[in-house]
Amino acid sequence: MIENFDTLLSNSKTVAISGHIRPDGDCVGSCMAMYNYVATYYPQVEVHVYLDPIPNIFKFLKNTDKIEDIHTVPEGTVFDLYIALDCSDGGRLGDAFSFFEAAKHTCCFDHHMTNGGFAEYSYIIPDDSSTCELVYNQFGKDKITKDIAECLYTGIIHDTGVFQYSCTTEATMDAAGFLMSLGIDYPKICTDTYYAKTMIQNRMLGKALLNCKTFEDGKIIAAVITAEDMAEYGALSKHLEGIVQQLRDTTGVEVAIFLYELDDGDFKGSTRATGDVDLTVICQKYNGGGHKKAAGFSVSTKDPWSIIDEIIELVKAQFDSLGI
Ligand SMILES: [Mn+2]
User: Fold this and answer.
1) How many of the other CB atoms lie within 10 Å of CB of 78?
2) 130 Cα–ligand 1 center, Å
3) What is the CA(155)–ligand 1 centre distance, in A?
4) Among 139, 169, 195, where does a domain finish?
5) Do 209 and 308 fall within a single domain?
6) What does the pLDDT read at residue 261?
7) How far away, in angstroms, is 29 Cα from ligand 1 center?
């Protein structure tokens, strides 16, 4: 916890809140939970939340209509307190970083292993499921309203894949259980923000699954979506989210590889592993990165399947050394 957090808030006239660029569920959830907390318990404070445009699925959260664009802040503005959420470093704040740096006091709540502590006061627990779980612990049960609970629950389910990832702990479930007890519509939050897919997303998923190929007795699976495929259905890159996970979830798969074409003819690659294959090593060969079981890269090529062939060779080498 940040012990003096409530003192910092009560001593501030102006408070700004931001999360990382291209906000996801945990980012939006933690920022809006923080905004609603400050607005509820510190009504004398002028509080602002600055985020990139958020996905429509999160707009039911209370006060998301108050989200402002950081570019509307006059240059030279100095906030009394700037709170960064779900950001592993200052760069992840995007254009908000200069205002963060200029603020009189700064706080950071985060759960990324790589966070080196760029704020004056930090609450960083890399083992926590989500920033929302950290914020839950910071606020304490007594201060969590139903509106705040909706924000925190949304963030927790998004960063845990609805409690399926290994980051989910007994403490995560206890927190989620308490949030449920406040009367939030948790089935609707899970369905509408996590499981629901648009028709375009479903068609692109169908296309990828129909055209995928398997290698090494089904241990490797790969699919490609071209710009032409996307144009056929009016799809954008955001409609392709989740495809690589669906490939990975195929029975018997150790490694899933998914490539899709960007507007400029380059390809974006995503990889997922179910076992011990280390994908960071593989994606680094294409100047990419990420986590051991989830990594990505961008590559310029006319022949995406030749890139997949190269990756398959790298995966096979790891299979050999791992005895897979
Ligand atoms: Mn997060």
Assistant:
1) 10
2) 5
3) 8
4) 195
5) yes
6) 96
7) 9
Question: What's the residue count for the chain?
Answer: 324
* Structure tokens given for 291: 């986590």
pLDDT tens-digit profile of 167-179? 899 999 999 999 9
Shared domain for 136 and 236, answered yes or no, is: no
Residue 285: which CATH number? 3.10.310.30
Around ion ligand 1, which residues have CB less than 5 A away? Answer: 26, 86, 131, 159
Q: In CATH, what number is assigned to the domain containing residue 100? A: 3.90.1640.10
Sign of the four-CA dihedral 13, 19, 21, 23: negative
Q: Tokens standing for 298?
A: 């961008």
Structure tokens belonging to residue 201: 């997303």
Tokens of 39: 């607005």
Residues 107 and 158 in one domain: yes
Eight-class DSSP state of 53: P
- Residue-range definition of the domain harbouring residue 171: 5-195
Query: Are 235 and 274 in the same domain?
Result: yes
Same domain? 17 vs 103: yes
Average pLDDT over the chain, rounded to an integer: 96
Alpha-helical runs (H) found in 88-236: 97-102, 131-139, 146-160, 170-181, 186-190, 199-211, 227-233
Q: How far is the CA of 111 from the centre of ligand 1 (A)?
A: 7
Please give the DSSP secondary-structure letter assigned to residue 161.
Answer: T
Whether residues 225 and 184 share a domain: the answer is no
Residue 222 Cα to ligand 1 middle (Å): 27
In the predicted structure, residue 208 carries a pLDDT above the cut 80? yes
Beta carbons of 21 and 35 less than 8 angstroms apart: no
Whether 12 and 79 share a structural domain:
yes
Of 195, 212, 247, the residue at which a domain comes to its end is: 195
Distance 289 CA to ligand 1 centre (A): 17
